[in-house]
Structure formats: C-alpha cells, structure tokens
Design goal:
The protein contains 20 helices and 14 strands. It has 662 residues and is of the alpha+beta class. The strands form three sheets. Strands 1, 2, 3, 4, 5, 6 and 7 form a seven-stranded mixed β-sheet that branches. A five-stranded mixed β-sheet has the order 9-11-12-14-13. The radius of gyration is 44 Å and the shape is elongated.
C-alpha cells in the first residue's frame, strides 16, 4: 500500500548498510577462486614431486605423512571442476563437465572406502606410480589415501555436485559438509603446527599429509565462499549487526588461538620461559585481544546504530510529511506504523491504530474478500494501485464510509515483507465528478433543446422566404428580393452554426475508438468530397506519401475535411491555387501539414485561430461559422497531439497537427 518502488527500509533492519553486502559478496566470491587455484597448485607440486622424485615436494616435513599421488590427482580434479563452475562464461556445457569431474571425485572416494572396508579389495590408491609405491613400502612408509581423506573427498564431491546443479535448497546442506571438511583439515594442520604426530598420524586409517590438510582447508573455504549470499554464509554477509560481529570474531577465533599457542610452544622449545609463565602470558594475551576486539566492535556497532537512527528519523519525517495517509502493515494485516495524516483521516489515535488489523478500515461487507486479496498480494508483492477499475471505500472510526484511492508498495525488512499503503480521500473528486456528470447531462438536454427548438423556426423562416420569392417574386421590387434572399441566407448560415456548435459540444463526450487509419486513402476521399462541394478544377495538388496512424476514423476525417476545406476556400482567389499536403516526424510524434498559397493571416492574431467564433476574415469575404478550427483543436487534443499554424498576409498559410507515433 503506497510507495514509489520496492525498497529496503533501515528502520526495520537495525544496523543495515544498504550498499555493504554487495561489494562484500563480490570480494568473498573472488577469494573462492583464489582458494581453488591454491588447491590446484598444491596438487600439481605434489604430482611433480612423484614424477621427478623430489622428496620435499612429496613431504615437506621429514618423517611426516607422504601424500598419495591419487589424492593429489583428486585435488587437481577439484580445482578444475571449481574453476569451470565459477567461470564468468559459465554455460550448461561448463556445468555438465564440472559435475562429471565432481562425480569422478566421488567415485574415487567410494572405491577407496570400499577397499578399506574389504582389506583384500581393490586398492585404487595404489594404481598411480605403483613401482614407486612398492619401493616406499620397503622403507615402511606407504603413502595411503586414508579413510579420513576419502571421506573428505566424497563430501567435497557431493558439495561440488550440489553447487553445479544450482539446487539452492540444498546449499545449506552442502555448506555443512564443507564445514566438516574444514575442521578435519584444520585438526590435522594443528598437529603439524604444534608438532604433535598423534594428531596427524592417529592410525593408518586417519593419517593425513600436510598437503592434504592445507588443501582441505582451501577446498572448504572455496566452497563456502562460492555462494556467500545463501545458506550458512548468508548469516555472515547479509549486512546485519550480527553478521558484522561474526566477520570480526570468527577469523580471530580461529587464527588468534593458533598463533598464541605457537608463540607459547616456541618460547617453551627455546627455553625462553617456564611452562607456567607461558600459560600466564597466553591467558593474559587472550584476555587483552578479546577486550580489544570487544572495544572495536562496540565502537563500530554504535556508529552503525547512530546512522540507523538518523535514517529512521529521516524516514519518520518523510512519512509524516506525506500528503496522504500512510499505513505500514505486516503479512498478517496488522498495522505497525502510521503517519499523522492517517489519524486525521480515520479518526483513530496512533495508539489505537498500532496493532489494529487493516480489515477494521474496510467496509464490513468486503472484509472476507479483502483478507483473500491481501494474502494473494503478499504471495506476489509488487508496486501497484489497489482495486484498479473498482470503486474503493474505507471506514472511519465512527463507521462513516468514504471513497478512497489506494497505492500498494512492498518493503523488504528483516522480519519479512511489509506493505506500505498510501490512502487518499477522494470525496471532493467524487463530488466534482458528480457535478461534472450533472453538467454534462444538462448540456445534453440543452443541445437537444437547441437542436429541436431552434431548427423548427429556422426551417419556417427558410420555407416562408422561399415561398415569398417563388409566389410573389413578380410583385416584389429588386430591393425586396434582396431582403428576402438575405433573410434566407442568414437562416441557412444560422443552421450551419447550430450544426457546428452541436458538433463542438458533442466532441468532449463522444467516445473515441482508435483503429489503424490509412492516411493516404482518407486524404484522397476528403479531397474528392470537398471538390464535389467547391470548385477545385484549377488547384495544383501536391500530396506526399502519408504514414498510417492509430486514431479515431470519424473525428480524424473531420480534421482533414476542415483543414483541406479551409485551404481550398482561402486560396480560391489566387490565379493558380496550390495546396501541399505532407508529413514529417518529430521526437515521438508524426506531424501532418496542409499548406496553401492563399490570403494568409496576420501572425499577430494566431492565438485567436482555434477559439470558438474567432474569425480573421469578414463573413462577406469568406463563408464560415468560426467553429471549425476550434473543433480541429479539440479533436487533436483528445488524440494526445497538438495543432498550430504559420502564416503571413497574402503569403499563404500552413496548418500543422501532430499525432503520437504508435
């Protein structure tokens, strides 16, 4: 109910920064690509180590677990699949290839887990560099794809498959799987950092090379960062104060304990301080860092709250300054916010309206229907007017109904979508419309009276003057005959004037039916019709090719008849009359013109041309009632066009009119 567009409103989203989430999401998604490249580099280095027998590339830490070559291949497959999935030129083919690669990872993991369950089964992790693996077996160190690695590869493949298929309902599930991968890799990496073999070499089934632990961390980060606006990651990137807190605390919660633990152990290994002293320093450091983080986050959140409060105040001022009643209600129809104009319009106080159901403002007979329409609107919210084509009424506190005009607009908030309703009392407009309708009815009655009551006396005047001339013409002198002719001609002219006035008065009420009008054919018919009534024998016609238009056929023909008829009439005194009819385009309009080389008119009086009864030539020079051009202007305005003229005395005139280019 009433705002110019669907929008986010900070007063309903505490601490929300309108532009913060967009660049953050873009940055996070960019980092996901970097993480996948790191995985690819690690796997390539490990495979080169096996190919070239470079021990440090297979195992950077002497005596630690050696990476299995098939594990390195699986990491390469992940990197390729992820790069295809995140490609800017991603297509269905790219997604299909990425999904097939993910399926290959899953199959490798499944075969390996099957080999672990059946000890004498097919050991798929021994097929690459088999000779070198046998040599390693003699030394007592067999690089294996252990159960923990196979499970993590399986989870990574499933997560990749979900993201490739764009099944957003499963994104959260996939992110949970990646978190399992992350902590599995972090657990093994912590063992390497703190030199605790019991962690990364628990048993032959749970051992993990440092390559694998780092790669699994990067794999998890790549998958989590690939869709930062969905699932679990949405809580970190949605721009709320809670996500801001998480963005600061989560990295610190992971990195700081690891760093401080390393510092303590390094000092202990170097005999810089005792175990007790190291523990004390560790505790004090953690306290200091947590307090510093809390202070920093407090300042940041306070700043955001101040900005939010400023935005809320501005919104409140905007809401209160609105000329219409503004009501904001939730999806249950409960009113949450109003402005002062609403109190004045409905007669309730603010306290009475907040919490009131919106149906209380709807007439009793349509409340059930309104509930249905409200639910349908919330299912597909969009900016629109309410009840288009219907007469809407609202109910004041005292039960009085009044006509209204309502506009609806959805507003996205952290609590869901609310609806803003802009309500305008149109009682005065309705009264004016009723008065206009009555005036039109009176005008119709008047025009009928003019048509019926005035025509009869005119017909009598014309008839009796004709009888007088025919029956008593021999007894009348020349002056008497001239007088009777003048009476008859004046009556005929009065009849034409009545016809023109009736046509002019009907034009505002006449319904227009726009169809495709063939301009060339219409102009040709109009010229033929005019030439049957007036002498056109020596006129030189220059008619250009005219475009078709969407217009009301009958009224547009009246425009052409008036303009062409005027051109014929006012150029009739020239030795060689010339009339030019043409067209041109101007912005989104088609402009037509009728130009003649007749007597023209003084441009100082152009403003009188299209007024009723305004004539720039005497009646004894050129016949006319002074209504034709006024009728032309009225018709063109109803077609959403305009009409104008250019001329000089004795240099001809050019009349223009424009129509929308449809």
């Amino acid at each position: 109910m009433g705002a110019p567009a669907t929008k986010r409103l900070s007063s309903f989203r505490p601490g929300y920064d309108v532009n913060a989430d967009i660049p953050l999401s873009m940055r996070i998604r960019q980092w996901s690509g970097y993480f996948s490249i790191f995985v690819l580099i690690i796997s390539i280095l490990a495979l080169l180590g096996w190919e070239l027998d470079i021990e440090i590339m297979k195992n950077p830490i002497k005596g630690a677990v050696v990476i299995n070559p098939l594990t390195a291949v699986s990491f390469s497959l992940f990197g390729l699949s992820f790069i295809l999935m995140m490609s800017k030129r991603r297509s269905r083919a790219y997604s299909t290839i990425a999904a097939l690669i993910a399926c290959t990872m899953i199959l490798i993991a499944v075969f390996r887990l099957g080999g672990i369950v059946q000890e004498n089964g097919w050991q798929i992790d021994q097929i690459l560099y088999a000779d070198k693996l046998k040599e390693a077996e003699l030394t007592g160190s067999v690089p294996m794809m252990t159960a923990s690695i196979a499970v993590c590869l399986f989870l990574a493949g499933v997560s990749l498959l979900i993201f490739c298929s764009d099944r957003k309902r499963l994104y959260k599930f996939a992110q949970v799987l990646t978190i399992v991968i992350f902590f599995t890799g972090l657990f093994a990496l912590t063992g390497y950092l703190y030199r605790v073999p019991e962690i990364y070499q628990l048993n032959p089934f749970l051992s993990m090379a440092i390559h694998s632990s780092v790669s699994f961390i990067f794999i998890a980060l790549a998958l989590l960062c690939s869709n930062p606006e969905t699932g679990i990651m949405k809580e970190f990137t949605n721009g709320y104060s809670g996500s801001l807190l998480a963005q600061k605390l989560v990295p610190a919660a992971i990195a700081l304990p690891v760093f401080l633990g390393l510092v303590r152990l390094y000092g202990h290994w170097r005999n810089w301080f005792s175990t007790e002293f190291g523990a004390s320093i560790l505790v004090l450091s953690i306290i200091l860092i947590i307090l510093s983080l809390a202070w920093y986050i407090t300042i940041l959140l306070n700043k955001r709250d101040k900005i939010r409060q400023m935005i809320e105040k501005k919104f409140e001022l905007l809401l209160q300054s609105a000329p219409d009643a503004m009501i904001i209600s939730n999806d249950k129809g409960v009113i949450e916010l109003i402005n002062n104009q609403t109190e004045r319009l409905f007669g309730y106080t603010k306290e009475e309206m907040i919490g009131l159901n919106i149906e209380a403002l709807v007439p009793q007979g349509v409340r059930k229907q309104h509930v249905h329409h409200r639910e349908a609107y919330h299912a597909d919210p969009k900016v629109r007017s309410m009840g288009v084509g219907l007469e809407l009424f609202a109910v004041r506190k005292d039960g009085v109904q009044f006509p209204v005009e309502i506009s609806l607009s959805p507003i996205i908030t952290e609590m869901g979508t609310v609806v803003s309703s802009s309500i305008r009392d149109i009682t005065d407009r309705k009264n004016l419309q009723d008065q206009l309708r009555k005036s039109n009815e009176e005008m119709s009655a008047f025009t009928y009276s003019v048509s019926h009551d005035l025509r009869a006396p005119l017909r009598s005047v014309i008839g009796f003057s004709t009888i007088l001339e025919e029956d008593y013409g021999s007894k009348l002198d020349e002056e008497a005959l001239r007088i009777t002719a003048t009476i008859r001609n004046s009556a005929v002219r009065m009849g034409h004037l009545i016809d023109d006035l009736l046509a002019f008065s009907r034009m505002g009420r006449q319904q227009m039916l726009k169809t495709r009008v063939v301009s060339d054919g219409m102009v040709k018919d109009c010229i033929a019709e005019i030439c049957q009534q007036q002498a056109c024998g020596n006129i030189i016609w220059e008619v250009s090719k005219l475009p078709d238009v969407m217009a009301d056929h009958n009224t547009l023909k009246q425009v052409w008849l008036n303009l062409i008829g005027n051109a014929v009439k006012y150029s009739s005194g020239q030795p060689i009359p010339r009339i030019n009819i043409g067209t041109y385009t101007e912005l989104n309009s088609i402009v037509f013109f009728v130009k003649d080389n007749g007597v023209g008119f003084d441009p100082a009086y152009t403003h009188k041309l299209f007024k009723v009864f305004q004539r720039l030539h005497a009646a004894d020079e050129f016949e006319g009632t002074g209504v034709g051009l006024a009728l032309v202007e009225k018709i063109i305005i109803r077609h959403e066009g305009r009409v104008w003229a250019e001329s000089r005395v004795n240099e001809g005139a050019c009349f223009y009119f424009s129509l929308p280019d449809s």
